[in-house]
Amino acid sequence: AGLRETNLLGAGRTLSLDGLFAQRAQRAVAGLAEPHMFGTDFEAGLSVFQEWRDEPSYDKDELGAALSFSRELRPRLRVSTEYRFRASRVSDIDVTDPVALAQTENVDISTLSLIGSWDRRDSIFVPTEGNLLRASLEYGDAALGSELDFTRLRLTETWLASPRDGTVVALS
User: Fold this and answer.
1) Of the candidates 113, 119, 123, 143, which has an alpha carbon nearest to the alpha carbon of residue 133?
2) Measured between alpha carbons, how far is residue 14 from residues 7, 9, 31, 148 in Å?
3) What is the mean pLDDT of residues 73-102?
4) At 22, is the secondary structure helix, strand, or coil?
5) Alpha-carbon torsion (155, 20, 51, 5), positive or negative
6) Which among 32, 105, 113, 145 is least surrounded, fewest beta carbons within 10 Å?
């Protein structure tokens, strides 16, 4: 469920409140986006989130925040950078292996990401044809405040086609 105000205070700012409520997971996110930061073409976003998940052998509770900046370089091509911090806590651990139990700990994760997207869909609201390509490079390091050091590359592409009226086939 979500709520979105797209012209907050008449300045084009977006305020969003989103929630997920399921038997094994809950998530709440509050976000604020400024479409023209300091009168430029850069968009700034700030979000805070809390998530709880009931995994098979433990429960995980995360609390965090993210700050992002993005810009459309040309129509359909967008680049973004994001700093994200999350405090991850585990509880109700059901592990009998003492070695595995010793490695189960609470951890703070801070990351810096660079994201690019190329959107060639015919509509962002109800797409029927085109594709969306997204690549992100995420880096976590102690210098950023992270207790885990890692680099992660994610690539996703979604294809949409309409073989006949009223039918959309999507592959990702």
Assistant:
1) 119
2) 6, 10, 8, 32
3) 84
4) coil
5) positive
6) 105
